[in-house]
Amino acid sequence: MTKYSPFNSRFLPNTQVVEERDGNISKYPHTDQLPRLLRALNYEFSVGLPDKIARVDHRAKDYMKIQKYLAVRIFCTMINEARRDNLQLCTLMDRNLVARISIVQHITEHVAPASVHRFKFYGGDDFFTHIYVNGKQVAFANHAIERFSERVPDHTGADLTRLLDSFFGSPIIVMECNNSPAFVIPYDKSVIAFPIRQSDNTAEYFLPTCLSGDEISQLNPIFPPPAYPSLYEAIYREPAVRNWDPILHGMRLKHSWQHKKPLTAPQYFKMAKHPWSKTGHLLDEICNIQGHGEGSRLLFIDNIPGHHFLTLLPGIRSIKFKGNIMTFSDAGCDYAVQELARGDYDGDGYEDALVLISTNYQGGSGRFNQAYLVSKTGPKQRQLKLTKMDAVLQSTTDRAIITRRN
Question: Cα separation of 86 and 160, whole Å?
Fold first, then answer.
């Protein structure tokens, strides 16, 4: 039987969202409907925004693109997390780092003994794409989606939206989970894992189930960690120099799992409860609270167009990771941060790190080095942070850090 639902938008009334059928493959919504549905959603989105944000395109400054991204994310993930027409909306950055509302086309292969689910993302006729991990598409077993719904608390009707937002929402790290390789991603203050099964189709990862922290009895990093951003192209080659740190990201995931925090349903900003027409006018204020301004910058992770990106606060020109060395620059200096050693230096039972910060003046020969002992201060302190580095990077993987100078 063909699936259909009334479209939930005042900009396209009396419209049914229908399913497309081709043999044992179903697609929801129908491919031919996607342009009309997206046009109505974009009207609904733009009406509540200041013109300067609604009109942001590839020519805009990064600071305005950051505001546009925040607006699209609130609209897709918070306000439209559980629509009556069963549409899933996703925030995607196009190849010009401009956020777009994207309709998720849910592609189901009806095969015995259970269905297989794939997803494609429509952000316009020029942006209709799969999301690739390590050059491969991702297929979810029906069992994986059911287990996510059962094991991960969420708001009624939002489980599939949250699954996609979580899985594709941060770079994916492969770790050894219960003695098998798995994609591990952060969720709430813990982690969830998707064991990997090699698909008969070599261009695809097949994920048979979803594990929360309670079902994970063993989680160990792999060195060097296989780490993949979600990209729009099937061709992928790991870069020699990265602008994020997969080792640190993997360590954070293990620490989060070790704390055994129970998963909870997302707690949204109060602004998400306001009428959309009022929410849009708060974006500039929110970005300023986060430290962003006219000099803020947007970068794709690994500088490859895809779903993940970094934001740099004003004054920071670039950031790169190679091995255990991070380099970045501001208006007057070049910096290199290197972890030299780890161990329990002060005998308090918590691992410490010896870090060297090298500063080189641009346009001159001046330079100096500073050594820091970076320590946890208690069992609830999950991560570390250098005080001189507070303004370097804000991203979805950032955590609080404490510093003691040696």
Answer: 10
pLDDT digits (tens, 9 = 90+) for 146-184: 999 888 887 655 778 888 988 998 889 999 999 999 999
Indicate the domain borders of the chain. 4-258, 315-406
Q: Which two tokens stand for residue 154?
A: 């969420």
**For residue 366, pLDDT beyond 60:** yes
Would you call 345 helix, strand, or coil by DSSP?
Answer: coil
Q: CB burial class (10 A; 0-12, 13-18, 19+) of residue 92?
A: buried
* Better-predicted residue by pLDDT, 93 or 363: 93
- Facing residues of 26 across strands? 21, 108
Give the rounded distance of the alpha carbon of 387 from its chain centre. 25
Per the rule left: phi > 0, alpha: psi between -120 and 50, beta: everything else, 404 is beta
The whole-angstrom separation of Cα 67 and Cα 354 is 37
Please give the sequence-ordered ranges of beta strands (E in DSSP) within 276-363, or none if there are none: 297-300, 309-312, 318-322, 325-329, 333-343, 352-361
Least confident of 93-102, 114-123, 203-212, 375-384: 375-384
Which two structure tokens, joined as six digits, stand for 73?
A: 């994310």
Alpha-carbon span 171 to 246, nearest angstrom: 9
pLDDT category at 15 given cuts 50, 70, 90 is very high
Report the range of poorest mean pLDDT among 11-20, 23-32, 79-88.
Answer: 79-88
The reply to whether omega before 224 is within 30° of 0 (cis) is: yes
Helix axes 159-167, 142-151, angle to 10 degrees: 100
Q: What is the pTM of this model?
A: 0.78
Distance CA 60, CA 124 (A): 19
DSSP 168: S
Instruction: For 122-150, give the secondary structure using H, E and C.
Output: ECCCCCEECCEECCEEEEEEHHHHHHHHH
Measured CA to CA, the distance from residue 87 to residue 109 in angstroms comes to 18
Most confident of 14-18, 223-227, 321-325, 337-341: 14-18
Neighbours of 286 (CB within 10 A): 17
Selection from 8, 20, 30, 15 nearest residue 81 by Cα: 8
Q: How far apart are CA 384 and CA 6, in angstroms?
A: 50
